[in-house]
Amino acid sequence: MEILRVEDLCKTYGKGETEVKALNHVSFSVEKGEFVAIIGASGSGKSTLLHILGGVDRPNSGKVYIDGTDIYSLNNDELAIFRRRQIGLIYQFYNLIPILNVEENISLPVLLDGKEVDAGRLNEIVDTLGLRDRVKHLPNQLSGGQQQRVSIGRSLMNTPAIILADEPTGNLDSKNSKEILELLKFSNKKYNQTIIMITHDQELALEADRILTIDDGCIVKNEKIR
Amino acid sequence: MNILKKLTLKYLKQNKKRTIVTIIGIILSGAMISAVATLAVSFQQFMLKVEIANSGNWEAMYENVEQDKVKYLEDNVKFSEVMKMLQIGMAQNPYSDEHFLYIKAYDEKALENMALTVERGRLPQNNKEICISASFFDGNDNEPKIGDTITLSMGNRISSDGYELISAPEEEGETFNVTGQKTYTICGIISRPDFEKSSDPFNGGVTLLDSSDISENSKWDVAVNVKRVHSIYEDSEEIAENLGLYPDTNAEENVYPITYNTSVLLYKGVNGTNGFNEMLYSVCGILILIIMVGSIMVIYNSFAISVQERKKQFGMLSSVGATKKQIQKSVLYEGFVLGCIGIPIGILAGIGGIGITIRIVGELLKSIINQGNWTLELVISWPTIVIAIILMALTIYFSVRLPAKRASKITPIEAIRQTDDIKEVNRKKIQTPKWIRKVFGIEGELALKNLKRSRKRYRTTVISLIISIVLYVSVSGFVGYLFTGFNSMYVNPEYDYIIPYSLYSDADTVEKEQIQNFEQEIKQTERIEKISYLYKYITTATIPKEKIDPRLQEEFSNDANFFSPPKMKTVLIKYLLIS
Ligand SMILES: Nc1ncnc2c1ncn2[C@@H]1O[C@H](COP(=O)(O)OP(=O)(O)O)[C@@H](O)[C@H]1O
Ligand SMILES: [Mg+2]
After folding, report:
1. Among B401-415, B417-431, B500-514, where is mean pLDDT lowest?
2. CA B458 from chain center: how many Å?
3. Which of A202, A194, A206 has the alpha carbon at shortest distance from A164?
4. A103: helix, strand or coil
5. Which of B316, B411, B413 sits opposite A97 (nearest CB)?
């Protein structure tokens, strides 16, 4: 089943001489439960693509369908609610709320929805991520790897249609990077969770089901690994 | 609790310094608003008190009420207080045959509330004692004294054609029909009571009401205070109609025999205003508006900084799926929380502050004003407090609205890009002159660069400081003016002598010269501190007869001089005020 379809996305920054074509007619699609890696040189447009997939930035033209919904036909508030329920975002710099503890940070998408936190799901995630003895800690009391695990937890909490991760290991040492990748793969298997991950680490990319290579705003390679 | 509210509270707790500064801003603004409002209300109540002391603590008076109708008034639920005055009747003046004495018996409440001012002696304590209007004693050769007993012939003034006269001026051929005798002991001398007009042919006497004086034919004047003062005119007429107190048939309009204490009612804000209320309220309104505008700018600045500081947080929340509305609400909630803390403290501080001011100034005023023993007192009224709360809520709302909107517009991208802050800086903008480093060292240069970088924040801080100072000065100026204005109402302007001078423009120059010489002389006199001149021009003019209203033409047609003054004249009256 197709969970994500991208049609002819274009995005330019700036005007005139300083104009940058960050995305240049990008199209592809992703099946449910797939683990896709996107690789490319720095400045090739990976983050731009991910932001547009995640509904946090708008394209100049083109369409993005997530689970059948054309997300840019939604208004801002609808898009925010859609993002909260259907998209999990993971960033290089974790982007946790510094004054909320681990538990609260993980529960944030549910809390923003004004819903009761499902204690069973929270416990399961906390245990899976190995954060059991850290639930009451604040982000600045955690290591980088632990913080990234919290942000993975947050992205999983609402069982979204798709998880988008922008260089989730970019700020971590190799041991922690391995661990994070393992966790992503684990949730991909366990929950049949669709994941798109940006990396410029060739080795990590090889762990994915498919690799998209992007250069100068264009998808230049689309190879299935397994 | 909602996660965003929780987040806001946590943020406020973590940034105690900024939170406290904002709360102080709110407190100051609340204090200023409530101080101005409370001072205005206190003044207004003080003026009302003085007015009540002058014209009595009553609102409406039903006149000539018959005995069988008094009970209806006494039991009326619309009244909060009923004061009864029994008409005892007219008496001949035993010391002079020109004036009469008109006596009323007041009940205890009437004695207390009808603004009787005892000049000497005391008020009557039984129906054998009487207080008499001071003017009664003028020109009486063998003046009675307090403690004297007088025996009066009571009766009616009857005109030559047989009507009873009360207030009518003495007529030729009127007679006095004696119906009985009454003996009173004079217990006090009072200023002219309410029912005695200066044009009346009688003086007033007041005794205490005793049930033995009441008969079937008794007539009363009943003064009342009502519960709902704003509908007093409608309610009173309705009562008069129910009572069968019919409009005076002689009068052109349907006027019921009711007298209103209009000066007191005006201070109570019924039917229009007198100049005082209007002035007080408009000045207060303008002042409060200025305070609000100033406060909005100061408090806005505070919230703008808060939003700036939390920019990243809002972006993150947005990326996790917080809607614009949710983010906007969370900033508004911050304003709500700070308001809940700041407003009550501010209002209490304002009332407390003005309370202390009034204490001090009131004592000073008391020693200056010869208006009896009313002091300016702090009046705390619920409506004032409620209005102050509403105004403060509006102030905070208008301060927070814009920062809240701005916060909701922050995109997740802005939060994701860590380097945002640095990127924005324009190199040229933060260049500093070389001498700065020489004079202030590298620290000074960095400080200036920082100021330049956050130029906007720096500017708003300076602006809000200036606004605070301007506000403080204008509020204290207002308070000062109020007291000075009040002084000049009740205390004479500051001069010791006044020398009026009249100068006719057609007078010969010699007179002018004389006056100039005189002025010169005064100027040179020792121990004169200050001379002020007050000019007043009075001009007469010739008006053609046909330009005058025909009704007046009739009136003046015989007076030839009126229409043809010999010469146009300008009179210059010059006052020299000397201190
Ligand atoms: N907000 C922006 N304004 C201008 N140019 C931008 C902006 N964001 C990204 N770009 C440009 O778009 C291109 C793609 O950027 P990005 O998607 O961040 O690349 P990657 O993540 O692959 O390193 C780059 O040339 C970058 O400079
Ligand atoms: Mg990138």
Report:
1. B417-431
2. 42
3. A194
4. helix
5. B316
| CB-CB under 8 Å, A56 with B316 | no
Structure tokens at B484: 């000075």
d(CA B229, CA B418): 66
Q: Do A154 and B2 touch (CB under 8 A)?
A: no
Q: Which ligand is nearest to the CA of A213?
A: 1
Radius of gyration over every alpha carbon of chain B, rounded to an integer in angstroms: 36
**Ligand 1 binding pocket, CB closer than 6 Å:** A 13-14, 20, 22, 40, 42-48
Q: What is the pLDDT of residues B454-497, one digit of tens each?
A: 666 666 667 767 777 777 777 777 767 766 666 665 555 566 67
Percent over 90 (pLDDT), chain B: 17
Could you give the C-alpha distances from B178 to B158, B183, B264, B427, in angstroms and in order?
10, 14, 39, 109
Q: Is the dihedral of CA A130, A134, A139, A145 positive or negative?
A: negative
Task: State yes or no: pLDDT of B68 exceeds 50.
Answer: yes
DSSP letter for each residue of B415-455: HH-TTHHHHT--TGGG---HHHHHHHHHHHHHHHHHHHHTH
Share of chain B above pLDDT 70, in %: 76
Domain edges within chain B: 3-52+275-415+481-489, 60-229, 497-578
| Residue of chain B nearest A86, judged by CA positions | B321
Average pLDDT over residues B51-69: 88
State in Å: Cα B217 to ligand 1 middle.
105
Ligand of minimum distance to the alpha carbon of A167? 2
DSSP state of B372: -
* Cβ–Cβ under 8 Å, residues B197 and B167: yes
B415 interface with A at CB cutoff 8 Å: yes
Residues of chain A with confidence (pLDDT) below 70: none
Q: What are B397's two structure tokens?
A: 């709302």
Task: Encode B537-552 in three state secondary structure.
Answer: EEECCCCCHHHCCHHH
CA of A43 relative to ligand 1 center, distance in Å: 6
Question: Which segments within B301-411 are labelled E, that is strand?
Answer: none
- Residue B317 with chain A: CB contacts under 8 Å: 97, 108, 112
Mean pLDDT over B16-43 rounds to: 89
Summary mean pLDDT of chain B: 79
Say what the pLDDT of residue B164 is. 81
**Spatial CA neighbour of B359 closest among B382, B338, B377:** B377
Interface touch B319/A54, C-beta < 8 Å: yes
Locate the chain B residue with the closest alpha carbon to A98.
B313
What is the helix (H) or strand (E) element at residue B385, kind and residue range? Answer: helix B382-409
3-state class (DSSP) for residue B86: strand
B412 to chain A, any CB pair closer than 8 A? The answer is yes
pLDDT band at B439 (very low <50, low <70, confident <90, very high): confident
Pick the closest to residue B302 from B414, B468, B449, B425 (CA basis).
B468
For residue A28, the cross-strand partners are A6
CA distances from B75 to A52, B58, B70, B72 (A): 81, 17, 9, 5
Find all residues with CB under 8 Å of B115, minimum gap 6, and list them.
Answer: B52, B53, B54, B55, B56, B57, B194
**pLDDT digits 0-9 by tens, A139-178:** 989 888 889 889 988 988 888 889 999 888 888 788 888 8
Q: How far apart are CA B175 and CA B446, in angstroms?
A: 105
Helix (H) or strand (E) holding A70, with range, is strand A69-70
C-alpha distances in angstroms, B480 versus B39, B49, B358, B475?
11, 22, 12, 9
Say if CB B525 and CB B534 are below 8 A apart: no
B449 vs B433: CA distance, rounded Å: 10
Nearest CA to ligand 1 atom 18: A47
Q: Provide the Cα torsion A184, A187, A192, A195; round to 10°.
A: -20
